[in-house]
Amino acid sequence: MKSVDAEKELLVIEAVDTASSNTLVLSENLTTENVTSIVVFSTVEADILALKISSQDIGAAAASHTHVSTGAVSIPASGWKNDNNASYPYYCDLSISGAAASDRVDLNIVSSSIDIAVACGLCPLTEAFSGKVRLRAKKVPTAAISAEYWIMKK
Question: Could you please report the per-residue DSSP string of 64-93?
């Protein structure tokens, strides 16, 4: 089954049967004009389903964003504030030159920092503001977290 969530700019492909359930989600991070991919789902019983995904399937999500900048950032273990947000009560604002409130800022944690990010419950979503990005967590990290960011302009 294939569906497009235009509001969240996602293509969701699901292979569901009585033996397995697999989901692949693609987002607007795929910014090439022509995207074609072969995706193979397999189960323990070796049942295989192959899907061909084209740029038409991804739709206008990729075309509606322009990649602006990338960079490395260190998420500190100090300077976090608490605003009593029920799910992620702690937040940290990182200065990122060129960021605007209308941007999407994606963050990838460097592999050497994944355990720290998981332990503090770092939220997978970011909030963009003019000149900064806000990160949220369930608790303050015990050490700095190394990450890379991508700014996407709409």
Answer: T-EEEEEEEEEE-SS--EE---SS--EEEE
Task: Provide the residue type at 121 as one letter.
Answer: G
Q: Give the chain's largest Cα–Cα span.
A: 51
Contacts of residue 8, Cβ cutoff 8 Å, sequence gap at least 6: 27
Q: What pLDDT does 47 receive?
A: 40
- The 8-class DSSP code of residue 15 comes to E
* pLDDT at position 115 over 60: yes
pTM listed for this prediction: 0.59
Distance, CA of 141 to CA of 121 (rounded, Å): 8
Mean pLDDT of 123-142: 95
d(CA 106, CA 31): 13
Distance CA 51, CA 24 (A): 11
133: closest CA among 154, 121, 113, 147?
A: 147
